[in-house]
Write the structure tokens for this entry.
Amino acid sequence: MTTWRMMTVIGVGVAAGTLSGCGSSTSPSDGLSDQQISTDLAATAAPAVANATLTFVEAGGASGADAGSVVPSITSCTVHSAGGLTTFTAESHPDSITFSRTWEYFSDAGCENAFDSAATDSIAFTASLVEVDHDPRFDARATEQWTLDVTGAPTLAAATTHVWNGVGTGADTAEHQTPGLDRTYLGASYDTAADIVFPNPRNGATTPSSATVSRWTTVTVTQATHGVHKARTISRHMITTFNGTAHVPLVVLDESSGARLLTCTVDLIARRIIDGSCH
């Protein structure tokens, strides 16, 4: 049986997305700048950041302290599961997330069949998400796989904070509509969530008080000009830093050089980049 500690540290390779059937393959014209590409990727990353936050909130356990207290189990324990569909009907864009989730409980003694407020100090989760986003400026679809854990010391019930950590992989498609500058992105992403802190009890908090989520993405962007398809592949590193509010900064870096290309603000409630916030 794989414990949550093993699931946290195992890296998952990400194959860069490729685009087939594109006609000729040349660099997009100057009409599609590196800045515009970074802006597009930030815009379509914003819902993914919000989804990760929602996953931490809805998964139910939060975490916080010494993960070293968890020991491997020598017996099989109950694997719990849930799934469903979340829609955002209050928005002008009818976004949706289809999800499935599994989890197991752990204490000093190993895995447990049920939550025990006197002993459970960590929970191991897996989560699968299919995200569909509709915005006046873009349509996006993404599939994501997350492996998460939450810890609290001395137990989850008694801890003053809960801390999440995890890794995720995704496959993304996005179409951005701008007159004369329509473009499509197809690629893959690798995400890490480090020290996502929530207070315990939660007291209505729906965003972490501190943490970072990093996304490495490699995409092929294709632009059609006068019937000719032009394409190139680019890589970006995006870092979101949580601060206890619904408005959080997202920094876009050039993956190879580390240079900052763009900084935007994500509205976690609206699941979008705030208009005019990118610079």
Q: What stands out?
A: Residues 19-273 form one domain. The helical segments are 4-9, 34-58.
